[in-house]
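Allow me, if you will, to draw on your knowledge of protein folds for a short while. The matter concerns a single protein, recorded as an amino acid sequence and a row of backbone structure tokens. Could you please explain, in whatever detail you think fit, how the structure tokens follow from the sequence? I remain grateful for any guidance, and I place the record below:

…
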Amino acid sequence: MWSRAQTKQWKKLANASGRRELGLFLVEGVRCLEEALAAGWQPQEVVLDSERPESERTKRLLARLTPNVPQYRLPSHLLERMSQTVSGQGLLASFPLPAPAPLADDLQTVVVLDGVQDPGNVGSIVRHAAAFGGQALIVLPETADPFGPKAVRASMGGIFQLPCIAASSAERARTLLRTRGYTVCVLRAEGGRNIWHETLPPRLALVVGAEARGPGPAWHDAQPLHIPQSSRVESCNAAFAASLLLAWRYGVGTASPVSTAPERP
């Protein structure tokens, strides 16, 4: 039996404070839930629209849930109250927030988000980091929560592939990366080395900052990288620039092969 208290709890998942309080985050839609299950995650609860017929795809998805995952079928108006999309997808799931994890010793490609405030950009960076060999995400203060609904949707399942490590400050993140032997590089709108002429280091920590100001002052001595562009626009979108560099590294820009998951056909 569904209760009002449950509706209130799910609505809290729209906010970072609510997610921290409940230890949960929200996932919407069949595609995202499929990606979660493929990565070995199981939801805490699943809610479906009782006024929509279940597709064969949805039925197959539900059959993959473990027996202890509650499934609720609720009227459309209740799902709309809990959904964070304009057009509800008829399926919501709550997942436990992952426990804090240390930075593993054997990783080669780490992405650092320093003040990237747009959740869509954060999600896109997560998506393409997962696609192009990224192995961990370090999230600094003033960065949009990668477990927020918009970021999760934009990641298209990438959030289930990468460990997200929260750092209390850029200075601590920089010290950690340097002691682990990473070459720290930052993307700059102007100046720096042309990425098309570079062989990127085997152990790379790529710092991506906010579009307006770039990475913070803690990264002043990091190696600057630059993507040449025309003067028609001021700079590339932060997510696009990060994705382009990661794709270049994945394809031909590394000094040694990057350890990645098998490619999809």
Q: What stands out?
A: Residues 42 and 65 are 7 Å apart (CA to CA). The first helix runs from residue 4 to 12. Residues 255-265 have pLDDT under 50 and may be disordered.
